Amino acid sequence: MSSTGIIRLSHLIAMRRDLDKLANNVANIGTPGFKGQRSSFKEHLKEATQSGPEPNANKYVSLVDTGLATTDFTPGPIESTGNPLDVAIKGDGWFVVQTPDGNRYTRDGSFRLNSSGQLVTAVGHPVVTSSGALTFSPNDRNIAIASDGAISTAQGVRGRLMVVKFSNSSDLSPAGNNLFDAPKSQPVPADARLSIGAIEKSNVVGATEMVNLVKLTRTYEMVANMMKKDDDSVEMQRLSDTL
């Protein structure tokens, strides 16, 4: 493959990765607490290996590298739901949940009680409180969460939601199911304000993401067509040389 072809191929690979992230953002517009993903592009120099009459032969070619994926941690808008178990964090902070792989962190506060009476996330992960994972009995009535995170029933306070923060949000990495992991950082308690009966919506702006998706799809198709024309030209040249 020529140096030009290698450059275009690297561009296609980078755009395909970005397309995947944009498509995922669009798919999660309605996911509470979701944080949009972005790709950071950078130049990657590689020594050309093909010799020949091309100007860049035996020199460095400039390729496209997606670099590191980044997360937009901008808070999403808070929407009232009227559900007493829905909780939104105002400002910095993360809810802590238990998973089979250890504690993980989320901004999705759409909590519920599972069939066993345990307080869990929308996907079923137990919510961590000052008393661990809470399980309520059928006799527990008037379960409520206060703005300071205190969880109570008619019998009194049962625990308090654990809300933490990190010194650097870049230490957080996506862990699937709208969760984040922080293998290189230790969380500390956050003095967060909570909005009860509300959820934080996704910070993805649908109109903006759709425009970006259309633009990137068109560019991808244009570069792919250019590569196809290059391949057709090379094949025609080979056929001509055999005549």
From TrEMBL:
The organism of origin for this protein: Bosea massiliensis
Database matches in SUPFAM superfamilies: Flagellar hook protein flgE (SSF117143)
Highest taxon listed in the record's lineage: Bacteria
Organism lineage string: Bacteria, Pseudomonadati, Pseudomonadota, Alphaproteobacteria, Hyphomicrobiales
Annotated InterPro entries: Flagellar_FlgE/F/G, Flg_bb/hook_C_dom, FlgE/F/G-like, FlgF, LlgE_F_G-like_D1
TM stretches of this protein: none
Keywords: Bacterial flagellum, Cell projection, Cilium, Flagellum
Domain Flagellar hook protein FlgE/F/G-like D1: 88-152
Main location as per UniProt: other
Domain annotation Flagellar basal-body/hook protein C-terminal: ranges: 197-232
Assembly behavior: The basal body constitutes a major portion of the flagellar organelle and consists of five rings (E,L,P,S, and M) mounted on a central rod. The rod consists of about 26 subunits of FlgG in the distal portion, and FlgB, FlgC and FlgF are thought to build up the proximal portion of the rod with about 6 subunits each.
Record protein name field: Flagellar basal-body rod protein FlgF
Name of encoding gene: flgF
Intracellular or extracellular location(s): Bacterial flagellum basal body
Similarity field: Belongs to the flagella basal body rod proteins family.
